[in-house]
């Protein structure tokens, strides 16, 4: 398994972030078969690398792959675990290799996940997560959702969360990962301009990124999940955030300087593509040396109670 040409390997991120991580676990040759996807979807090797890198970044930040207390069950029982919007399947590949007694399922409408070269306890299903999930009620012990921050409209979050709760057994868990910019603490003018442009682009598409830090309110509305836990970790992007800040800077700069993002954000900012590229690769990098923009990642998790 694996692709030795992954740019993650070339960058040596494995060594820096987490010594236990095996990047060979994913066969990047199999990824990106369909590249008709829009911005914010992993549609080429660079974007897929960023998704992988983000997985290891968040694992390093939380020092764990998940927050609900399910590890013992994953080891001892034959649990069923679902990852919603699984992308290239990085999280699932990690867990399927680690918890051999359990079975893992990923759903995504993008064929970025490996079809053949994968552990026997891992299955992928192509499905739209904003339609009814292709699984019966109470099938899973744990339903997880990694990052889908620029994808869902407010009403789609409610649907997606209700589907996650439906397919989980009473006594099982749901978990969703969210990002937050809070008060934009420590943010310099260049980064602020970028955030405002991106925010207005998302709003135009009906996606309010401010919904994410409040997903707990949506989860709590479901009578099956009245108690929601919030596990939040703060970090600073850029050199003032140390090693983890530099990894996040790489992910963020990579996203912003991609062709798709350049195409979208340069007209919103009223500048040419060349000026936009200079803004990212020079002005932003320079600004990050003197500022400390604070971000956080939040894991919301809840146990499904038995309402009968
Ligand atoms: C940023 S990626 C995150 C991948 C993975 N959850 C992770 O954290 O590594 C977002 C994923 O959501 C998927 N996605 C977006 N809209 C979707 C939809 N309507 N149905 C299924 N998957 C969707 C995209 O294809 C993409 O793989």
Automatic annotation (TrEMBL):
It comes from the Eukaryota. SUPFAM superfamilies: S-adenosyl-L-methionine-dependent methyltransferases (SSF53335). Transmembrane segments: none annotated. It holds the Pfam family Methyltransf_25. Residues 81-172 form the Methyltransferase domain. Gene3D superfamilies: Vaccinia Virus protein VP39. PANTHER family: METHYLTRANSFERASE (PTHR43591). This is Methyltransferase domain-containing protein.
């Amino acid at each position: 398994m694996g692709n030795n040409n992954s740019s993650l390997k070339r960058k040596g991120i494995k060594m820096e972030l987490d010594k236990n991580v095996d990047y060979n676990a994913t066969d990047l040759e199999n990824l990106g078969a369909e590249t008709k996807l829009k911005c914010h979807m992993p549609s080429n090797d660079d974007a897929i690398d960023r998704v992988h890198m983000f997985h290891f970044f968040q694992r390093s930040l939380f020092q764990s792959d998940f927050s609900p207390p399910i590890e013992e069950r994953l080891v001892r029982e034959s649990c069923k675990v679902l990852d919603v919007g699984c992308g290239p399947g990085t999280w699932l590949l990690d867990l399927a290799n680690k918890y051999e007694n359990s079975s893992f399922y990923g759903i995504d409408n993008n064929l970025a996940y490996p079809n053949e070269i994968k552990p026997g306890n891992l299955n992928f299903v192509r499905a739209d997560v904003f339609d009814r999930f292709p699984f019966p009620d109470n099938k899973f012990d744990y339903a997880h959702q990694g990052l889908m921050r620029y994808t869902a409209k407010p009403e789609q979050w409610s649907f997606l969360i209700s589907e996650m709760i439906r397919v989980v057994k009473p006594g099982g868990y749901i978990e969703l990962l969210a990002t937050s910019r809070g008060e934009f603490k420590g943010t310099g003018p260049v980064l602020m301009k970028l955030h405002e442009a991106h925010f207005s682009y998302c709003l135009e598409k009906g996606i309010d990124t401010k919904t994410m830090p409040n997903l707990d309110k949506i989860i709590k509305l479901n009578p099956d999940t009245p108690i929601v836990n919030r596990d939040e970790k703060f970090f600073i992007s850029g050199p003032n955030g140390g090693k983890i800040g530099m990894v996040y800077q790489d992910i963020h700069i990579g996203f912003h300087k991609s062709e798709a993002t350049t195409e979208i954000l340069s007209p919103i900012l009223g500048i040419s593509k060349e000026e936009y590229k200079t803004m990212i690769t020079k002005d932003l990098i320079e600004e990050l040396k003197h500022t400390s923009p604070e971000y956080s990642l939040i894991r919301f998790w809840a146990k499904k109670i038995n309402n009968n």
